[in-house]
Amino acid sequence: MKKGFSIIALNILAIIAYLLLSLFAKAGFAWETSAITLWPAAGLASALVISYGWVLLPGLVIGNLLGTACDPMVGCSVQSSMVFISIAAGAQAALIRFMLFRYKLLTDTLNRSSRLFRFLLWAGPLGNWPAAATYLLDKLINTNSIQNLHQIFISALYWWIGDSLGSLLFLPLLLLVLPFK
Asked: Contact at 8 Å (CB) between 139 and 152?
């Protein structure tokens, strides 16, 4: 009973933290596209999944859904595609966790440049493609104009860059303060 309560409490805290970081990012780092150029919540999601395991994925998916749907300037608006993007964001955090554990990069001191480079690649650009790819696929399927393709690709690129930068900046910092299994 106590363990179940702590898992629920951790998921609720993850939802709140993800939502707050999302609102902060949208208020501070939004440009002219639907993507954000720095998404600290991606680093938070990866750090929480690394530290507490797979049990936090539901909270992170819900937090991403709320964070994607809510905008401090416009309000909240949920679209059906956001559900798939939120699931992809959870898969993204799980992918980063899986690859860092697979290559034993979390127990390594990372004092060799090749190991540090591999950690940074998986924590950043290689691990942060699922949400941007899901966004891109959704927009390509639902677009009705070839004139919008350029904007769709630019938005997906910014999405990927924002998630990658958020992970690269915040994941190492959060791993310093969070315990991991």
From this structure: yes
Taking each continuous run of H as one helix and of E as one strand, the counts in the chain are 7, 2
Q: Where are the beta strands (DSSP E) in 21-140?
A: 70-71, 75-76
Question: Where do runs of H (alpha helix) occur along 103-129?
Answer: 113-123
State how far the Cα of 157 lies from the Cα of 36, in Å rounded to an integer: 10
Q: Pull the structure tokens for residue 65.
A: 């859904």
CB 102 within 8 A of CB 119: no
Q: If we measure between CA atoms, which residue out of 173, 81, 98 comes closest to residue 133? A: 81
Per-residue pLDDT of the chain in tens (181 residues, 90 and over written 9): 567 769 999 999 999 999 999 999 888 877 655 678 889 999 999 999 999 999 999 999 999 999 999 987 788 888 888 999 999 999 999 999 999 999 999 888 888 999 999 999 999 999 999 999 999 999 999 988 887 888 899 999 999 999 999 999 999 999 999 886 5
